[in-house]
Structure formats: structure tokens, C-alpha cells
């Protein structure tokens, strides 16, 4: 199965892509006699990619490593648009390199075994939360000024020595 980052096909053969999401929750059974768990949302998805790159394609390996290390103008890792059938099934559209990019020589295949992980950013859950936060900010009413400001204003109004 192939995978592309911003339209650039990850090099190699026998490429395997694995995907997963964490459905976070906590055990609350100690708070009563029921076996309860708390729902803590859907965490960002991850894609694990394993591929084999021939020794003759050293420049492709170097380009993959440079993409993993790439930073934007703010010093943050580059976010890539992902093109892969499994990622599409998980609705993972954008991701960045996370954790370790590991390369191991495989002599019998005359190449390198390369493994890396991509973590989802701007997930559906994150976008929904941002929309909710934006709506909450628009609908919120301003709180009263702090009591300290009121006291300071009263001192300013008083004339005296």
C-alpha cells in the first residue's frame, strides 16, 4: 500500500501502513459499586509506516529523512497532507512526523528497513472542538470588572491630603 506526503510518494517496496486511534477513558469503578468508565474523547490518530528502500536509492532515503526533520518558519514540524486509503478510512487528512524514524540495514535484500510514525493534527475532533469554542466565545457575556478596579476608581475620585 502506498502513502504520499503532500503528493510525494514515500519511496520503497513492501510498504506497510498501520493506523490506530485511542478511545481514551478512565476506570471509575472505585467510586461506587458499578463498573464504570469515563469517556475522555477520541485522541489523534496515528499512522505507522514500514517500508524497504534499496541501497541504490540512498537519495530517496535522504529526502525522507529531511522531510521528517523539516520545520516551518516558526520552528514547528511541517504538517503534511496524507494520501493513503487506510488514512482516508480513519479520516486522517493531515499529520506530522512523531517519535522515531528508524532505519536498519537488511543485507539479504540489499536495502534498508525504514519505520516511522505520523500523528494526526487538525483531526475531526479538534476541528469540532474549535468550532464549539468559537461559538462559546461569541455567545459569552463579559464578566464584571474586578473589585480591585472598582476600589482603585473610588480612591481616584476622592479628594484629600
Short description:
Residues 127-161 are annotated as: Disordered. This protein has 161 residues and is α+β, with helices and mostly antiparallel strands. It contains 4 helices and 9 strands.
Q: Structural class, judged by helices and strands?
A: alpha+beta
Number of strands: 9
Tell me roughly what share of residues is in helical segments: 25-40%
**How far apart, in Å, are the first and last alpha carbons?**
83 Å
Report strand order across the widest sheet: 2-1-7-8-9-6-3
Number of helices: 4
Please tell me how large the radius of gyration is: 25 Å
H-E string: EEEEEEHEHEEHH
Number of domains: 1
How would a crystallographer describe the biggest sheet?
7 strands, antiparallel
The average pLDDT is 84
Strand composition percent: 35-45%
Low-confidence stretches: none
Shape: elongated
Q: Could you describe the 3D structure shown?
A:
It comes from Pseudoalteromonas neustonica. Residues 136-146 have a biased composition (Low complexity). Residues 127-161 are annotated as: Disordered. This is Phage tail protein. This protein is α+β, with helices and mostly antiparallel strands and 161 residues long. It has one domain (4-27, 38-140). Helix content is 27%, strand content 37%. It contains 4 helices and 9 strands. The strands form 2 sheets. It has a 7-stranded antiparallel β-sheet. A hairpin with a 4-residue loop joins strand 8 (94-106) and strand 9 (111-120). The model has no long low-confidence stretch (mean pLDDT 84).
Amino acid at each position: 500500500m502506498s502513502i504520499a506526503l503532500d503528493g510525494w510518494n514515500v519511496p520503497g517496496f513492501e510498504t506497510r501502513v498501520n493506523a490506530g486511534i485511542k478511545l481514551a477513558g478512565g476506570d471509575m469503578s472505585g467510586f461506587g459499586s458499578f463498573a464504570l468508565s469515563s469517556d475522555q474523547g477520541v485522541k489523534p490518530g496515528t499512522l505507522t509506516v514500514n517500508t524497504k528502500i534499496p541501497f541504490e536509492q540512498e537519495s530517496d532515503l535522504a529526502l525522507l529523512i529531511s522531510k521528517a526533520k523539516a520545520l516551518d518558519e516558526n520552528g514547528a514540524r511541517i504538517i503534511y497532507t496524507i494520501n493513503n486509503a487506510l488514512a482516508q478510512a480513519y479520516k486522517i487528512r493531515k499529520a506530522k512526523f512523531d517519535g522515531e524514524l528508524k532505519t536498519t540495514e537488511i543485507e539479504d535484500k540489499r536495502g534498508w528497513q525504514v519505520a516511522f510514525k505520523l500523528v494526526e493534527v487538525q483531526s475531526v475532533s479538534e476541528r469540532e472542538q474549535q468550532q464549539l469554542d468559537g461559538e462559546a466565545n461569541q455567545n459569552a457575556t463579559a464578566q464584571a470588572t474586578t473589585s480591585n478596579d472598582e476600589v482603585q476608581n473610588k480612591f481616584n475620585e476622592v479628594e484629600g491630603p
